[in-house]
TrEMBL record:
One of its GO terms (biological process) is CDP-diacylglycerol biosynthetic process. SMART domains: PlsC. PANTHER family: DIHYDROXYACETONE PHOSPHATE ACYLTRANSFERASE, GLYCEROL-3-PHOSPHATE ACYLTRANSFERASE. Its main location: membrane. Residues 298-426 form the Phospholipid/glycerol acyltransferase domain. It is found in: Cell membrane. This is Glycerol-3-phosphate acyltransferase. Its EC number is 2.3.1.15. Belongs to the GPAT/DAPAT family. One of its GO terms (molecular function) is glycerol-3-phosphate O-acyltransferase activity. Keywords: Acyltransferase, Cell membrane, Lipid biosynthesis, Lipid metabolism, Membrane, Phospholipid biosynthesis, Phospholipid metabolism, Transferase. One of its GO terms (cellular component) is plasma membrane. InterPro entries: GPAT/DHAPAT, GPAT/DHAPAT_C, GPAT/DHAPAT_LPLAT, GPAT_PlsB, Plipid/glycerol_acylTrfase.
Length: 830
C-alpha cells in the first residue's frame, strides 16, 4: 500500500512541483552551506520535522539550486551516495518510523554503512506566534498543520520562505549505544525533536503578545503599582492620574511588532545597502547560531558608530534565519514617521536619563523584566551613544545592570548569553558632523524629519565602501557570574528591583569591560583603516606611493605575525591591492613627480580619517608600543624594555579596551617582540638586546610608521603623568581642575604642533587616564581630591623617554606655565 501511494505521488508530482517553484521565494540558511561540512562521498538523509509534501518540494528546489544531493522519498530504499533520501520525524507507528528503523537496522548490521542525517526546517513566513490572534489560526506556520491549512499557509507566506539546514546530528553517538533497533529509533527521534524545537525558537523567537496586553501587564506589575501609589502620595494626586501617566510611559517605551513593517523595511534596506555600500562582511556566525540553537536568550551588545547600526544588525540576523531582537533606541529617534516604523520593527525607546522619575524607572524596568522573562532577544549599545572619535567609549551600565538583575533573578533559570558585536565601516557617513561637534562648530541636537530628508540626498549620492560585522565570543552570563561573583544566587534572592548595591555595580562594571574587550577582540582590519594608519603616521600626512605600498604590506604582515586575537582578521599582505581598495574611499590626492607619485589628503580629510584610524588602531597597540622604544634609540635592552612597557600598558589597555589582563600583558608583549622579529622589523642579539633595522631600509620606515600609531596616546600619558608629578610637593590636586588642565595642555600642544585633530584633546580620554591611575594605585581618590603617589614620577619619566626632544621640551614648558587655569577651550583648530 505504501509503495502504491509513493508511486501515485511521484506520478502527480509535476502538477504540484512547477507551480510551487514558480510561486515560492526561498531564503537558505546558513548562507554559506560549507558550514554543514557535508561529505558528498557519504549517503545523506534529510529529516523534516513533520510529513509534508510542500516542505519536501521546497527542500528539493533548494538542493537543486545549491548543488546539494537531491532528496528522494525513502520508500524501502536506504540512502546511498548517489541517492539522498528525505523522511519526517515519525509520529506513532507511521511509515516514517519504519523507514528510520530500516536505516538504523542497516547501520547495526553493516558497520561500514555511514549516513549523514541532516535536520531541515522549512518556515513558511517568519512570524512569531501572535497569541490570541485570528491570523495565527489561519495563516501562521506550525509544526502540525492540516493539508488545507498548509495550502493556505503556502499561498499567503510562500514568497517569504526560509529553509534552514541544521548541523548533521550526532548519529554515531546514538548508534554506538547497546540497544535494540526500536530503542535506538526512539532515542534518535528524541534528539531530532529537541533539535527542531530549539531551531524553531532560535528562528522565530518567543511568542509576542498584543501591545495593549503588554501595556496592561506592565501597569499591573507590583513594582509599577508600588511606584504609582508612592507617587500619588508624594505628589498628593489621585492614583488614577499616576496610573494614566504610567500608561503613557509604557506607550512611549513599548515596541509594536509588525510583520508588514518588517517586510517593508527588509526591501528598503536591501535596496539601501546595495546602493550606498559595496557589501557587508559578516564573520563568526556559526558560533552565534550555535548559542541561539542551545536554547539561550541572546543579548546583543554592539559598538555604536552610525545611525545605520540600528537596523543593520537586525537585517543580518533576519537574513541568517535568526530571531529578531528588540532594540533599545534613544527617544530622540521617536519622531514621525521614523519612530513608528522603527517601533514596528522591534525598537523600544528609552530616555537618556531616568534621574528623578521613579515611576518611569519602574515602568522601564518592568518592560526589561518582561522581555528577559520571555526569553526575547535584545540589543542595546553599551556605550550609550555613538562614538564621535571612532574609539570605543567608556560603557554606561544602567541598561546593562537592569538586564543582568533580571537575567540572574531567582525566578529565572534559563541560560543567557551576552554577545559582543563589532560593527565597522570603510566610511562613516556622520563623521563630518562628529568632528564639527568635537571642535565646537556644531552643537549636538535631536533628530527631526527635516534632518533626515536633507541628509538622505547626500547619503544616497555617495558610496561608503564596505561594512564589517563580527560576532564576538558569547559570554555565558551565569558562568561569568559564577567566576566573578560566586555567591550571586544568594545575593540575588535578597535583591529588590530598585536596589543598586555596590557589589552588583562592581560586577556589572566587570562585565561591561569584558564586553568592550570582546568587541575589540573581533575587529576587522580593513583596507581604509590600515591605509589611514600609515598616512596619518607620516609627519606631513604625505607619503610616496612606493613607500606606502611597501609599508602597507609590512603592516599587514605584522597584523598576521602579531595577531591581536584569534577572532580579529587582517587583509593579505599585498600593499598594492590594499592601496587600490582604500584610495577612492580616502579621497587621496596624487601629486605627480618624476620619481613617483606622492599621496596626501587635504587638512579637512585628514581629520576625518582619524575616525577610520581609531576604529582599528588597537590592533597594533602592542607592536606600536614596542616600536616606540626604538624611535630615538638604535637598540634597547630587552629585559628593561619589557619592564617599561609593562608599566605603560595599563594606561594603553584602559584607553583602548585591550583584551589582555594586566597580569598577562608581559607574555603578550614577549609574543609581540617575537612577531616583530619574524617580520624583520627587529633583531635579537646574543647579549639580550633588540636592534632596529638600518636607517633607509623598508623595515626602518615600517617600524617608524608603526611607532607613530600610538605616539599621540603616549604624549597624552606623558602630559598626565608630568602634570601630576609637578604637584608632588603638595601631594594632592583637585580633580576637576586637573582634568581641565590636561585638556587645555593637549589643546595647546595640538596648536603648537600644527595638528588639526580635535579628538587629541577629548576630555573623556583624560578622565579615563585618571580612573586608570586610581585603579593601579598611583592615585587615590578622596572626594574631589586626588592624592598622588611618588611612584608616578617614574611613569612620567618612562613616558617622556619615548618622545622626541621637541615634544619633551613642549610638555616641560607647558607644565611650568602659570596660565594653566580653568577656562573655555579655544576654537582655534576650527
Amino acid at each position: 500500500m505504501t509503495r502504491l501511494l509513493v508511486r501515485l505521488l511521484l506520478i502527480f508530482m509535476p502538477l504540484v512541483r512547477w507551480p510551487l517553484r514558480a510561486w515560492i521565494r526561498t531564503k537558505v540558511t546558513p548562507t554559506d552551506l560549507d558550514e554543514l561540512d557535508l561529505d558528498l562521498d557519504k549517503p545523506v538523509c534529510y529529516v523534516l520535522p513533520a510529513a509534508s509534501v510542500l516542505d519536501w518540494l521546497a527542500l528539493e528546489a533548494v538542493c537543486v539550486a545549491r548543488g546539494l544531493p537531491r532528496p528522494y522519498l525513502a520508500g524501502n530504499r536506504p540512502p546511498t551516495v548517489r541517492r539522498a533520501v528525505v523522511l519526517a520525524v515519525p509520529v506513532g507507528r507511521s511509515r516514517h518510523r519504519t523507514e528510520l528503523q530500516r536505516i538504523v537496522t542497516r547501520t547495526l548490521h553493516d558497520h561500514s554503512f555511514d549516513v549523514q542525517m541532516v535536520p531541515v526546517s522549512v518556515f513558511w513566513g517568519r512570524n512569531p506566534v501572535q497569541e490570541t490572534s485570528i491570523t495565527r489560526i489561519l495563516f501562521a506556520d506550525s509544526d502540525r498543520s492540516s493539508r488545507l491549512r498548509k495550502l493556505l499557509i503556502v499561498a499567503i507566506n510562500g514568497r517569504n520562505t526560509l529553509v534552514h539546514f541544521g548541523q548533521p546530528v550526532d548519529y554515531h553517538t546514538v548508534m554506538g549505544q547497546p540497544a535494540t533497533p526500536g530503542v535506538l529509533v526512539r532515542k534518535l527521534v528524541r534528539v531530532l525533536r529537541v533539535h527542531f524545537r530549539r531551531q524553531r525558537a532560535a528562528t522565530l523567537g518567543p511568542g509576542v503578545s498584543r501591545r495593549s496586553q503588554l501595556i496592561d501587564t506592565l501597569i499591573a506589575d507590583p513594582e509599577v503599582a508600588h511606584a504609582i501609589t508612592e507617587g500619588a502620595r508624594r505628589e498628593k494626586k489621585n492614583v488614577a492620574v499616576l496610573r494614566a501617566r504610567a500608561r503613557e510611559y509604557a506607550d512611549e517605551i513599548a515596541a509594536d511588532h509588525s510583520n508588514i513593517a518588517i517586510g517593508f523595511m527588509l526591501r528598503v534596506l536591501t535596496w539601501l545597502w546595495n546602493r550606498i555600500y559595496d557589501g557587508i562582511d559578516v564573520k563568526h556566525l556559526p558560533r552565534l547560531r550555535s548559542a541561539a540553537h542551545d536554547n539561550r536568550e541572546i543579548i546583543y551588545l554592539p559598538s555604536h558608530r552610525s545611525h545605520m547600526d540600528y537596523l543593520l544588525l537586525s537585517y543580518i540576523l533576519y537574513q541568517e534565519g535568526l530571531a529578531l531582537p528588540q532594540i533599545a533606541a534613544g527617544v530622540n529617534l521617536n519622531f514621525w514617521p521614523v519612530g513608528g516604523l522603527l517601533r514596528r520593527c522591534g525598537a523600544f525607546y528609552l530616555r537618556r536619563s531616568f534621574k528623578g522619575d521613579r515611576l518611569y524607572t519602574a515602568v522601564f524596568r518592568a518592560y526589561v523584566e518582561t522581555l528577559v522573562a520571555r526569553g526575547q532577544p535584545m540589543k542595546f549599545y553599551p556605550e550609550g551613544g555613538r562614538s564621535r572619535t571612532g574609539r570605543l567609549l567608556v560603557p554606561k551600565t544602567g541598561m546593562l545592570q537592569m538586564t543582568v538583575a533580571s537575567a540572574l533573578s531567582a525566578s529565572r533559570d534559563a541560560p543567557v548569553s551576552v554577545v559582543p558585536v563589532y560593527i565597522g565601516y570603510d566610511r562613516v557617513m556622520e563623521v563630518k558632523g562628529y568632528f564639527d561637534e568635537l571642535s565646537g562648530t556644531r552643537v549636538k541636537k535631536g533628530e527631526t524629519m527635516g534632518d533626515l530628508v536633507r541628509g538622505s540626498t547626500k547619503v544616497l549620492s555617495r558610496k561608503y565602501g564596505r561594512v564589517f560585522v563580527s560576532f564576538g565570543e558569547p559570554i555565558e552570563l551565569q558562568a561569568f557570574a559564577d567566576k566573578h561573583l560566586p555567591d550571586w544566587r544568594a545575593r540575588m534572592a535578597d535583591l529588590s528591583l530598585d536596589a543598586r548595591p555596590k557589589w552588583l555595580q562592581g560586577f556589572v562594571d566587570t562585565l561591561a569591560t569584558e564586553v568592550m574587550c570582546g568587541i575589540n577582540a573581533t575587529a576587522t582590519l580593513n583596507a581604509t583603516g590600515l591605509a589611514s594608519l600609515v598616512l596619518l603616521a607620516a609627519p606631513q600626512k604625505s607619503v610616496a606611493e612606493d613607500e606606502m605600498v611597501r609599508t602597507l604590506g609590512l603592516l599587514a604582515e605584522v597584523a598576521r605575525a602579531c595577531p591581536y586575537s584569534k577572532d580579529a582578521s587582517a587583509p593579505e599582505p599585498d600593499g598594492a591591492a590594499i592601496l587600490a581598495e582604500a584610495e577612492p574611499l580616502m579621497r587621496l590626492i596624487r601629486a605627480p613627480h618624476a620619481w613617483g607619485d606622492i599621496l596626501t589628503v587635504d587638512s579637512r580629510q585628514s581629520v576625518l580619517l582619524t575616525y577610520t584610524r581609531n576604529n582599528v588602531m588597537h590592533l597594533f597597540a602592542l607592536p606600536s608600543l614596542i616600536a616606540n622604544f626604538f624611535a630615538h634609540f638604535e637598540q634597547r635592552n630587552e629585559k628593561a624594555l619589557l619592564a617599561d612597557a609593562v608599566e605603560l600598558y595599563p594606561l594603553l589597555a584602559s584607553e583602548l579596551f585591550l583584551r589582555w589582563p594586566v597580569d598577562d600583558c608581559r607574555d603578550a608583549l614577549v609574543e609581540t617582540v617575537n612577531g616583530l622579529i619574524s617580520c624583520g622589523l627587529l633583531t635579537r642579539t646574543e647579549k639580550g638586546t633588540l636592534k632596529r633595522p638600518k636607517a633607509g631600509s623598508d623595515g626602518f620606515a615600517a617600524l617608524n610608521s608603526l611607532a607613530r600609531i600610538m605616539r599621540e596616546s603616549l604624549e597624552r600619558y606623558a602630559m598626565t603623568a608630568t602634570l601630576l608629578s609637578h604637584n608632588l610637593d603638595t601631594g594632592t590636586v583637585e580633580r576637576a581642575r586637573f582634568e581641565r588642565q590636561c585638556q587645555l595642555m593637549a589643546e595647546r600642544m595640538a596648536l603648537l604642533t600644527g595638528r588639526n585633530s580635535p579628538e587629541f584633546f577629548d576630555a573623556r580620554l583624560f578622565r579615563n587616564h585618571v580612573e586608570t591611575l586610581v585603579r593601579v594605585g598611583l592615585l587615590r581618590r578622596e572626594g574631589s581630591t586626588l592624592h598622588i603617589d611618588a611612584e608616578l614620577r617614574h611613569l612620567a619619566e618612562h613616558a617622556l623617554r619615548l618622545l622626541g626632544s621637541d615634544i619633551r621640551q613642549s610638555i616641560a614648558h607647558l607644565t611650568s606655565l602659570s596660565r594653566l587655569e580653568d577656562g573655555a577651550p579655544s576654537n582655534a583648530l576650527t
